[in-house]
């Protein structure tokens, strides 16, 4: 029995990502195969990431998982697909020091434990399932010494959550829709790494949604079945945009990048509205999205050349990508003018992430926010206190990492239970 | 000089209309030629119409016009186009009793006066320009004894305001986009008259807009120039829908009619959202449109077959078309539950038009409104007092009419000035 007491553990960190050419619509619901390619930017894991510890031990009698400290079921099809695909690629593992020896075909009988947590509020609706499935697959692959590269792993993560495949890389990432019926060629590739275009600054306006939104799975299905514009978008519009976006990213052409990003976000929401019954992700009760879009459009127009791009996913948060630090500094001033914190809020909790942007903007406390001038390009600019929960300042970031520091593990090294 | 003192006058009434297959986008801005056919239902002029008096006299030294009692300039291109086209078709007029004799080529030298008013609030954004230009052209044609039929006149009214061409007929009307470069074949035809499908009931929720909207001329131009979905809609989607809508109207197939009407309204707003910068007509701050759409969709879904269709133009008003009186009675109950009048409102001014619908619904005063049960198909139905300005109950109506009763004329029969 003594040799059966070992626990082998791996801890990994995976970023979240935001699409700049959107994924909306599956051609295969089980394999999660999309109707078009998509492109995303990976967000800095220092500010937004999932950390996952996976463990295996002959003493575990079933697969178990804890998400943000709470046990959840692994019986869902999406988890089962990921577990099955990774187990099929597991290899022999030997660690003489710890007395571990797992033969390739032992993996079918061994059970795993998974503990995962997000370093950002899950309720924020910031693609936590993308980072989560990417991290699960990446960590399990390392645990089981699978030889597949990150692109091959992305095709497995895709079966957990479509956009998860794009979280296997840093920088800018393309999810190639693929052609194969089994989905084997529907995977992510890195376009450029996070150093290629490192002057970009990303500011996320996190807002709490007061209304129940259509889940993206249901929404996509309805759009595929009823929108007469979706197929045109997928077949005619997106292929051209993907090429233009790849060029814009390669050449760090912010004007084209911003134009394509905004247009594609709007078109995704147009397809949602063309769905029967219509889906309104861009229609929050406080009108924040329209205010933000209007603010950005007016500013870009007044400057003659885009300073900022906006993009909105299937929820109310706004993701704003500023051309550079100077544009980001002006952007945070405009945003804080239009969306000041509630009177009792702590500025330190209202703008999180890379706070150096705030410092560059000369904002140290609430008084500085109150003293901000209205953006000159907006007539009768209104201040809407409390409409935004908080802002996250971040930038393009790197892909998955193994965390070798055992103190960061989420499972106890001996019991295999959450710490 | 004595023979110069006559004034010849004609007064006409023209209905407004609401498109069920939308017109959005011009292929020629000056001639106002659309990128697709459209279909509308004419609204009962008893509740929504324009009345216009036109007059000619050798004593008039310039063309003048009064709209709702206020003098406006006729120098705009759209007025000038209509006046020129009608003058070119003017014929000889003789009225021995009044001593009037106008030769065909006298019309070039004679000046006209126009007085026009809407029997509904102009600020309501209920296609007053459609009824207005249709009435102007129709009345001038009668004044000048032009021999053109209403379809031919519609091609002139179209040059005042595109959708005006559809107000030259009652019932259901198709605006054929045409092919000719000079626009001569871009005109309206009647599909069926107002008696063909007379069980339909139309309820309009009039809401005051708190935000400035994009004018439809500017919006259409931006959409044509920037939306990648508009051309697909115009070329691929609308031609099929026009055929299906014509069939549905011919067969009084309310299920198909409602499905097509709602889908086309949503697609029009989708194209607006796909425009750069995006146009948000469906995004009013009080969320009324989404509430109304959601209410209708849930009800139709719970009944298994559509009871009501919704359609929204380039403004915040909702136009609801109920299958029959029974559906309309239930609809007004649901609408009054969700959008009750302000506490101090007079129900008599809150539901106008055909008040017999209210009576059928058993609603006589505010207390009856307060006692309405929540619609069972809507979970946690909320009441939003004051979000709707008022409701108009109406039905499909007839086309333009000459008003022979001289007491209805808006100009003084001797001075030719507004009464």
From TrEMBL, chains A, B:
This protein's GO CC annotations: cytosol; peroxisome
Mvd1 C-terminal domain residues: 202-402
Domain Diphosphomevalonate decarboxylase-like N-terminal, residue spans: 15-188
One example of a Gene Ontology biological process annotation: sterol biosynthetic process
Keyword line: ATP-binding, Lipid biosynthesis, Lipid metabolism, Lyase, Nucleotide-binding, Peroxisome, Steroid biosynthesis, Steroid metabolism, Sterol biosynthesis, Sterol metabolism
Gene3D superfamilies in the record: 3.30.230.10, GHMP kinase, C-terminal domain
A GO molecular function held by the record: diphosphomevalonate decarboxylase activity
Subcellular location: Peroxisome
Primary location class: other
Enzyme Commission number(s) from the entry: 4.1.1.33
Catalytic activity: (R)-5-diphosphomevalonate + ATP = isopentenyl diphosphate + ADP + phosphate + CO2
Function of the molecule: Performs the first committed step in the biosynthesis of isoprene-containing compounds such as sterols and terpenoids.
Family per similarity comment: Belongs to the diphosphomevalonate decarboxylase family.
Protein name per Swiss-Prot or TrEMBL: Diphosphomevalonate decarboxylase
Species in which this protein is naturally found: Salix brachista
Lineage summary: Eukaryota, Viridiplantae, Streptophyta, Embryophyta, Tracheophyta
């Amino acid at each position: 029995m003594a040799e059966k007491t070992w626990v082998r553990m791996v801890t990994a960190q995976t970023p979240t990502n935001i699409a700049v050419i959107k994924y909306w619509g599956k051609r295969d619901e089980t394999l999660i195969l999309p109707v078009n390619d998509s492109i995303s930017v990976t967000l800095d894991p220092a500010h937004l990431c999932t950390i996952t510890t996976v463990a295996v031990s002959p003493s575990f009698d079933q697969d178990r998982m804890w998400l943000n400290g709470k046990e959840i079921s692994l019986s869902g099809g999406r988890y089962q697909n990921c577990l099955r695909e990774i187990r099929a690629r597991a290899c022999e593992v030997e660690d003489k020091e710890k007395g571990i020896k797992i033969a390739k075909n032992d993996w079918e009988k061994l059970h795993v434990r998974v503990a995962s947590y997000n370093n950002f509020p899950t309720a924020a609706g910031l693609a936590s399932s993308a980072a989560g499935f990417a991290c699960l697959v990446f960590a399990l692959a390392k645990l089981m010494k699978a030889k597949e590269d990150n692109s091959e792993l992305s095709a497995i993560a895709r079966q957990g959550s479509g956009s998860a495949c794009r979280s296997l890389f840093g920088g800018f990432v393309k999810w190639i829709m693929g052609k194969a019926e089994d989905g084997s060629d529907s995977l992510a590739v890195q376009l450029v790494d996070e150093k290629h275009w490192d002057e970009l600054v990303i500011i996320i306006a996190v807002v709490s949604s007061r209304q129940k939104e259509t889940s993206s799975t249901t929404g996509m299905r309805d759009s595929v079945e009823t929108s007469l514009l979706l197929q045109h978008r997928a077949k005619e519009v997106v292929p051209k945009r993907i090429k233009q976006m790849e060029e814009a990213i390669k050449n760090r052409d912010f004007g084209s990048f911003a134009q394509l990003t905004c247009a594609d976000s709007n078109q995704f929401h147009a397809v949602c509205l063309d769905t029967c019954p219509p889906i309104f992700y861009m229609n929050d009760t406080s009108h924040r999205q329209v205010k933000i879009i209007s603010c950005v459009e007016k500013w870009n127009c007044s400057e003659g050349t885009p300073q900022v791009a906006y993009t909105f996913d299937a929820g109310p948060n706004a993701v704003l990508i500023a051309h550079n630090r100077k544009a980001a500094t002006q952007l945070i001033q405009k945003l804080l003018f239009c969306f000041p914190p509630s009177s009792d809020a702590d500025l330190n909790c209202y703008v999180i992430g890379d706070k150096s942007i705030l410092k560059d903007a000369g904002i140290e406390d609430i008084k500085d926010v109150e003293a901000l001038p209205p953006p000159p390009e907006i007539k009768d600019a209104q201040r809407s206190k409390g409409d935004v929960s908080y802002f996250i300042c971040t930038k393009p970031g790197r892909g998955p990492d193994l965390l070798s520091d055992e103190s960061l593990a989420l499972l106890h090294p001996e019991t295999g239970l959450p710490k």
